[in-house]
Protein: Mitochondrial K+-H+ exchange-related-domain-containing protein
Organism: Exophiala xenobiotica
Amino acid sequence: MRIFLLPLTTRQALIFCQRATPNPQGKLSIPDRITKKAAETWAQWEAAKGGWRKQIVTYGNRGLQRIPYQEWGLKSFPPSNPKLQAEQIANNEKFDVIYPSNVMHSGDVPKVMARLARERKQLHWNRFIGSMVAMPFTVPFALVPVIPNIPFFYLAYRCWSHWRALKGSDHLDFILDHRLYRPISPPEVEDLYEQVAPDAPDFKFVTRTQVLDDSVPPEQIILPADSHDLVAKVTGVPELSGEVERAVWQIQRQFEREKSQQAAKQSEKAGTKPEKDDKGM
């Protein structure tokens, strides 16, 4: 198992866990079998030329694109268990954390991993419970003929997704708590950042307080949007292409929203500015 920690902006980074290659003859767990079957069904619907299946896939893919990239990153970590954890502690097993030392300082690696593991844990728990509670209310939609109960399947997926993110968060927390990680900066990853972002500022770990009091420079994108395929090629991890593309797209939208909000605030201030009395009239 390898962990990739790739700076996306001067404040945000993508985390992704590349799992060990599974044994082809090994028996899949029930959740993995359900996930595999769902992926096969989704691919079949995606290949449809038209109809409600194609429509569902089209809108579904748009929805998946908007799921926070941090959630996708946590879901890439396999759920752990006490027996496996005990073995890893006894063997002092170390997991490589791949990062670019020419962009990110080694001392920031555990800080960023801890933030990604813990800052959204309560949110995933709340939404996991919320999805569970809401699912029974979608049962009446099953009475609609031909079309499957889309609201129920959506909530079931979001429930599973938040559960997997929680388990991934716990796994990452365990790795951090027992220092079972080994930061490594391969030359090819450093060269990648030199190639795609030669003039970009370095990643800087900042606290929420620093962001709120404006004591840090404005956030800037480090990894360009069109670099996702190159990232996958250099790292040898095809899945990173989609992960990086989704993450950068979301960050660009975040920047656009923040820019619009700032412009609206400035306009509001200018509009509410009291006018000077004209005493000459």
Strands lie at 2-7, 13-18, 95-98, 181-184.
